[in-house]
Specification:
19 strands; Nucleotidyltransferase, domain 5; about 45% helix; 6-stranded mixed beta sheet; alpha+beta; 24 helices; 4-stranded antiparallel beta sheet
Length: about 625
């Protein structure tokens, strides 16, 4: 400790000095020691001190003047140790309450304090009889603002607890000890561009519902549709049935980890209700569980109204960051026209209004044009099917990226080594390991090893083989809880119906194992339309039937395959007919053989006579 400053302090001053934070006390000692050495010419020496301390001359001068007036107390950094002269705990709490009661700023709260002070009102912490013509020391705004409520308190009071969460300790997690299929996150998103669709009166945005594996960071399953407009003008978006279909598709096509899987969902569109959660639990013997984000919106204090109930976006932070990446990748103005901005109310491009008007006029004209003319039009937005394929491509491009900063990647060992071979190029480590021993050693001797991170797709595909997939009967148990349509087997042994949510063309499924006219309830998962589940009148699962594909006339190989399948089914359909007609067939064969024998009997007799005569001549000779 600098003895030059402590030597002049009385006992009560020394106690006050020692109560300062260590960092502040050290600064006071350093400046006090330096300022004691300042002599004439003052300004020149202060300039040298300022340069040595790395501060401006104005700062050095201010500290020198404060030091001369107040001694060592003038060197205290009041930003770290606010002045508390006359500020009792009661007044500080009163001041915080004024700040909290203003929904925007603390300056109006200070003006309210001044008004009450000058009006002579009783103010906690200010003694009665205190002169009101001027403020006591320590009650300036610059000093009081140091005692304002914390940022957490102000945000919670003015906005709510959800927004205030940014100013409290957060819970951090890592993927390090996870495995593929142990945690799936489900969510929906709006794409930030518009598309057009034949039959719709105006341009609309694309909606996407997807599943994301938390360990690999791979968005491995998704469904995309436009937000359409019904004839009555209402909007048609995503619904809970589509979430059910996605869950069924994920568990039947990809599966879940044998040690258990948690489906992380929200409370809105991408929700799993309790009845479905129970079915999942029963079908998997408790291996598949559902985890939901907490509901926010509770009031910050008694008397404050509760906010709108909403989920916690931090619950699926990994998916939110991926969604931002998708928005960025789909923001190319030439490839994806019709951008709406991240928040169309605030940052929509001004040209969007004119683009909308132009698209509306073209859509009205298209209703009266033949398909060939429609195909020639150049629209200001992407056509919906083209947009879907583009979004699919971009999502998969993101899945295959190796340049990323995903949390816990190296700690989880999700890296590999590629080998650059002169004259050959880059070979993956797995490809090199698959080479014969002699070839592998030759490659390793000539190659340059290059370490890199695995892509999300590589990690997911590597772990996918360990997952347990739902059997068709289990999938049916999920789907039967939702609305099914009644269908009838046609005379052509096909089940045919229409569902615009799945396909604009009629859906056909092969049902040649059933009698024409038989009725069933059918459920088709839009994520897997290649098959349909059939249920009887009692709700029992009968089985699955495969789609009867419509083949393009240009697909010669496909036509041949379909014609071969049709011929095979025809033979199967003829089998019962052949069995029942076996007696007729046998009788016809017998009749045919008899007729042949009768018709050839004369010829046989003549042949026998010729043979006998020839034998007689030979005996005479």
């Amino acid at each position: 400790m600098n003895t030059s400053i402590t030597a002049q302090l009385q006992s009560h001053e020394l106690t006050e000095f020692l109560q300062l934070p260590v960092e502040v006390r050290a600064q006071v000692e350093q400046w006090d020691s330096a300022l004691r050495k300042i002599c004439k010419p003052i300004q020149n020496n202060l300039a040298k001190l300022a340069a040595a301390k790395g501060v401006s001359l104005q700062t050095a001068r201010r500290k020198y003047d404060d030091w001369r007036r107040q001694g060592w107390r003038g060197l205290i950094n009041r930003a770290k140790v606010p002045e508390d002269r006359g500020l009792s705990p009661e007044f500080i709490e009163f001041w915080k309450k004024l700040c909290q009661e203003n929904g925007r700023k603390c300056k109006p709260a200070y003006r309210e304090f001044l008004r009450r002070f000058k009006a002579g009102e009783m103010i906690p912490g200010i003694e009665p009889g205190t002169p009101r013509h001027s403020l006591p020391p320590g009650f300036s705004y610059d000093n009081l603002i140091r005692y304002k409520p914390s940022q957490f308190e102000l945000t919670a009071a003015r906005i709510g607890r959800g927004a205030a969460a940014d100013f409290r300790p957060k819970v951090f997690t890592t993927r390090k000890d996870l495995r593929v299929g142990e945690r799936f996150i489900f969510d929906d998103m709006w794409h930030d561009f518009k598309v057009v669709m034949v039959g719709q009166r105006r341009a609309m945005r694309l909606l996407q519902l997807h599943a994301h594996d938390l360990f690999s960071g791979c968005q491995f399953a998704r469904g995309i549709k436009p937000r359409m407009e019904a004839p009555d003008g209402t909007s048609i978006g995503l619904n809970e049935n589509e979430m059910l279909f996605l869950v069924a598709h994920v568990l039947s096509e990809f599966g879940f980890h044998p040690d258990g899987c948690v489906l992380m969902v929200e409370h809105g569109t991408a929700a799993i209700r309790e009845d479905l959660e129970k079915v999942l639990f029963d079908l998997t013997a408790g291996k598949v569980l559902v985890d939901r984000s907490g509901i926010g919106g509770a009031s910050s204090f008694a008397g404050q109204y509760a906010g709108r109930s909403k989920g916690n976006f931090r619950f699926k932070a990994a998916l939110e960051s991926l969604g931002n990446l998708i928005h960025n990748e789909t923001a190319a103005l030439l490839d994806v026209p019709g951008q709406t901005g991240s928040n169309s109310r605030l940052n929509a491009p001004e040209e969007l209004a004119g683009r909308d008007r132009h698209a509306d006029a073209l859509l009205k004209a298209m209703a009266a044009l033949p398909p060939a003319r429609i195909a020639q039009l150049r629209l200001p937005f992407l056509e919906v099917n083209s947009a879907k394929w583009l979004v699919e491509e971009i999502n998969e491009r993101i899945n295959q990226r190796t340049e990323h900063e995903m949390e816990g990647w190296e700690e989880a060992g999700l890296t590999t080594i590629d080998f650059e071979v002169p004259g050959v190029g880059l070979l993956t480590g797995s490809r090199v390991l698959a080479l014969p021993e002699a070839n592998r050693q030759a490659v390793l001797a000539a190659a340059t090893p290059l370490a890199r991170k695995l892509s999300p797709r590589e990690v997911f595909d590597a772990g996918r083989a360990d997952l347990i997939r739902f059997r068709p009967a289990q999938t049916a148990m999920l789907l039967k809880e939702r609305t099914a349509r009644e269908v009838k087997v046609g005379t052509d042994h096909l089940i045919e119906f229409e569902d615009q949510d799945i396909s604009p063309a009629p859906l056909r499924y092969l049902a040649h194992h059933f009698k024409p006219g038989e009725k069933f309830a059918v459920v088709v998962n839009p994520f897997a339309p290649q098959s349909a589940h059939l249920f009887d009148a009692a709700g029992r699962w009968i089985g699955m039937v495969d789609a009867w594909q419509t083949i393009s006339q240009t697909d010669v190989a496909g036509l041949h395959r379909q014609m071969g399948a049709a011929a095979k089914i025809e033979n199967q359909l003829l089998c019962p007919l052949a069995a029942r007609g076996a007696e007729i067939t046998r009788k016809r064969l017998e009749d045919s053989q008899h007729n042949v024998a009768v018709l050839t009997s004369d010829g046989a007799e003549k042949t026998e006579k010729k043979r006998a005569a020839r034998n007689a001549l030979m005996s005479v000779d």
